[in-house]
Amino acid sequence: MPKAKKLTGSEAVTDHIQKLEPAIAETIEALRQIILATDPIIGEEIKWNSPSFYYTGEMKPFDPKEYKRDIVVMNLHRGNILLVFPTGAVIKDTAGLLEGDYADGRRMARFSDMEDVNVKAPALQKVIKQWLDKVEKM
To answer: What phi-psi label fits residue 78: left (phi over 0), alpha (psi between -120 and 50 degrees) or beta?
Structure first.
């Protein structure tokens, strides 16, 4: 039996999205394209069973449990799509997109549908750009 080809990060994300209910898949795909269009240094993969986006450039060494490379992870939650920013506390979000004040530094953005995505897209890209400015590059 031939060994299954390992999917690239982008292929795995596409495969994951194609298995979702069409309305959710459309919204997730729109968010995906907004995130990836923000900067070419952003990569994607499946992490924690969800589409995840990360910084692909060189970084100063860090403890992997600090999640400094992870920009945002999608999470489907009770009809909403949550974008979890594991280190979102470093961002000064003036648009009010990010919610929560978790001790671990995580912040979230909530999206309900395509209209919500379209309204919040500029704020999402601004938050991601701010996050990228905070990366401890080499």
So the answer is: left
Q: What is the DSSP letter of 137?
A: B
Length of the chain: 138
Q: How far apart are CA 71 and CA 68, in angstroms?
A: 8
Could you tell me the pTM of the whole model?
0.89
Contacts of 129 (CB under 8 A, 6+ apart): 38, 39
Burial of 85: CB neighbours in 10 Å, binned 0-12, 13-18, 19+:
buried
Q: Is 89 helix (H, G, I), strand (E, B) or coil?
A: helix
Give CA angle at 11 (138, 87), nearest 5°. 40
Buried b (16+ CB within 10 A) or exposed e, 18-39: eeeeeeeeebbbbbbebbbebb
53-64 pLDDT, tens per residue? 999 998 888 877
Token digits for 92? 């000064």
- Say which DSSP state 57 is in: S
